[in-house]
Design a protein that fits this description.
The complex is a heterodimer of chains A (338) and B (293). Chain A has 15 helices and no strands. With 338 residues, chain A is an all-alpha fold. In chain A, α10 (235-242) runs antiparallel to α11 (247-275). Chain A is globular and about 85 Å long. The longest helix of chain B has 37 residues, at 83-119. Classes of the chains: A mainly alpha (338), B mainly alpha (293).
């Protein structure tokens, strides 16, 4: 077991070096001069030259690359051109927003997805099953950024139930405690007896979380259904039924438990994708997370921010996938032998 | 989707193609998907004949006309352009983008995957490492970064989507080539003196194509979604191109005033992608029952 984890961790090193390398050369080869971007169009040749020297951009590419790698392993990606603050510091502040959104979305998607999948499998080939699966296929085919706009149009502008964007009513300022606003809201509620922070945080997260949950929900429902169909066919399920165990218990205790393996994998992969920053959803709902920040950095050609952001996001993504694989091998020992 | 239908009896004495076709026709989801795809392809091909108006012709005097008024079936946008005509011409772009991106992904992926699976050794390890690195980037982020490097336009968007989708094909094809290359018919041909190239692309590849075809069908839907997303972010098609994602992007300011400008381009995207997903699912059931998720 430990040998398997160890081997996977070792394999991570070349992958991450590869990621660092690709990100470096993509940025180095992309059109535009970082010094020009930083100083603006009116800078003169001398100023540009000076800045290039300061940033080490006048050095050969190979030398720049080595220096970049050396700093990257210390998690130092320099300062953002736009804000002048260390890139890692900015990422650290924004990440909780993305984590919070991803957690709520995954919670919705997993709960509902498994429920719909189980019902579909149990009611196989009935109209309930067909409509659930057509619904799931529509979900998979959904342009989420459009769904987000439709949500805003219907529920924010039309019915006025939810705000159109942001994480918290701007008039409710508070010193962030955990930076997970729902958690902060609960803490403030207990501490100050005022629930308005919590209510505002929840009202703000509903639409982006539901929009973001659409595709994972559909995928989880589909996976649950086919996995459940597989286990419901097994002999032990028949035996359990024959033994007179109540159907509800057979489905949830006996069949679902064994059907969970592929579901866990899918949930893990989807969670990794969401943590990597929901660029579109965050942008539309002005959600101050890593995805929106990264997109702004790319658009503004903020090179240090792009490098740091892409590397961090990809590392998180790879690590989550690794955890999923390891969990899978814990539950299913056959994998390790391969 | 419906397991019962695919296991129905198929008359004997049919070629494999006829057999699969018969199975496919019994799969309602696949037929529905095929009809949707067909409609979009016809719309795309004959766009100038079907569209009631020029998709880029502006007419300020009729701007933001509601649907079903003055002959504008889906209404007009903020510049008075006929929404239906723009969506019809948009089908042209989306179908092209879908097919071209998947073409890039498939050709590159099949080529690399076949070579890696066939030759094995160092080359195989290099290719698989590269694929691992590519898969370390979340898909959407990878396309965005590639477009940012290449420069934002439709051609580069197709390239970016194609490159980002390539790893799937490499893995699929490599796995089936690995499984096939020790098969008796390959050994037999090899002993008859057939060259490596002929073996790879003439004998082994055709026998490994079923999962690739399924993946490609689903991939077209994916590519349409991705290109719409890129255009939405300003990284794909540029105005005044009637591209669906771009139309959705420019509709953002009208969520308070003109629901039709927001609604219809998204519905068109959804329907087109749904068509490819329905058909892809059906194909999977027919071509490879084991691949069902």
């Amino acid at each position: 077991m430990f040998r398997y984890i160890w081997r996977r961790l070792l394999l991570l090193i070349p992958t991450l070096i590869g990621v660092l390398t690709i990100v470096f050369f993509m940025v180095a080869l992309s059109p535009g001069d970082p010094a020009r971007v930083m100083l603006g169009e009116r800078a003169n040749a001398q100023q540009l030259e000076q800045l290039r020297q300061e940033l080490g951009l006048d050095r050969p590419l190979g030398e720049q690359y080595i220096r970049y790698l050396g700093r990257a392993v210390q998690l130092d990606f320099g300062e953002s051109i736009k804000t002048g603050r260390p890139v890692m510091e900015e990422i650290g502040e924004l990440f909780p927003a993305t984590v919070e959104l991803a957690l709520v979305a995954m919670f919705l998607a997993t709960g509902l997805g498994i429920l719909i999948g189980v019902i579909s499998a149990v009611k196989r080939n009935t109209w309930i099953d067909y409509s659930a699966m057509v619904g799931a296929l529509v979900g998979v085919s959904m342009p989420v950024f459009w769904l987000a706009l439709v949500f805003i149009m219907l529920f924010s502008v039309g019915l006025g139930w939810f705000p159109t964007g942001g994480r918290m009513n701007v008039r409710l300022w508070f010193e962030p405690i955990t930076r997970l606003y729902i958690l902060d809201g609960i803490i403030l509620w207990f501490r100050e007896g005022d629930a308005q922070y919590l209510i505002s945080a929840i009202r703000h997260i509903v639409l982006p979380a539901v929009a973001l949950a659409t595709i994972p929900l559909a995928i989880i429902a589909r996976t649950t259904r086919s996995s459940m169909l597989e286990t419901l066919r097994q002999d032990y399920v028949k035996t359990a039924r024959a033994a007179g165990i109540p159907e509800r218990r057979v489905i949830f205790r006996y069949a679902l438990k064994n059907a969970l393996l592929p579901i866990i994998t899918v949930v893990g992969i989807q969670f990794g994708l969401l943590l990597a920053g929901a660029i579109l959803t965050e942008t539309i709902f002005a959600w101050p997370g890593i995805g929106r920040w990264l997109y702004t950095a790319i658009a503004a050609r903020d090179y240090p921010a792009v490098q740091g952001g892409v590397v961090v996001v990809s590392t998180v993504f790879v690590l989550i996938n690794l955890v999923v694989d390891v969990l899978y091998s814990v539950v299913n020992p056959r994998i390790r032998l391969q | 989707m419906s397991d019962a239908q695919t296991t129905q009896a198929v008359p004997a004495d049919l070629t494999p193609f006829q057999e699969n076709w018969t199975r496919l026709r019994q799969n309602k989801a696949a037929v529905a998907g095929l009809i949707i795809i067909g409609l979009f392809l016809i719309t795309a091909t004959f766009a100038p004949l079907i569209a009631p108006a020029d998709p880029t012709a502006q007419n300020i005097s009729v701007r933001k006309t509601e649907p079903f008024t003055d002959g504008y079936i889906l209404g007009t946008d903020d510049l008075g352009r006929d929404l239906l005509s723009r969506i019809i011409f948009g089908a042209r772009l989306s179908m092209t983008i879908g097919v071209v991106s998947v073409g890039i992904a498939m050709i590159g992926g099949v080529f690399l995957g076949t070579l890696a699976g066939f030759y094995g050794g160092l080359f195989d390890r290099l290719v698989m490492r590269l694929i691992d690195i590519m898969l370390a980037f979340p898909y959407v982020l990878l396309t965005i970064v590639i477009v940012a490097v290449l420069g934002p336009n439709l051609t580069n968007a197709m390239m970016a989507i194609g490159i980002s989708q390539m790893p799937r094909y490499v893995r699929l094809v490599r796995a089936s080539v690995l499984a096939e290359k020790e098969a008796d018919y390959v050994l037999a041909e090899r002993s008859l003196g057939t060259g490596n190239f002929e073996l790879m692309f003439g004998s082994i590849l055709p026998n490994s194509l079923a999962p690739v075809i399924v993946q490609a069908t689903l991939g077209v839907g994916d590519a349409i979604l991705s290109s719409a997303a890129l255009s939405f972010l300003g990284l794909g098609a540029q105005p005044p191109t009637p591209e669906w994602g771009l139309m959705i992007a420019s509709s953002r300011e009208f969520v308070t005033s003109a629901w039709w400008i927001v609604t219809f381009p998204g519905l068109a995207t959804l329907l087109a992608v749904l068509g490819f997903n329905l058909f892809g699912d059906g194909l999977r059931d027919v071509l490879d029952p084991r691949m069902k998720d």
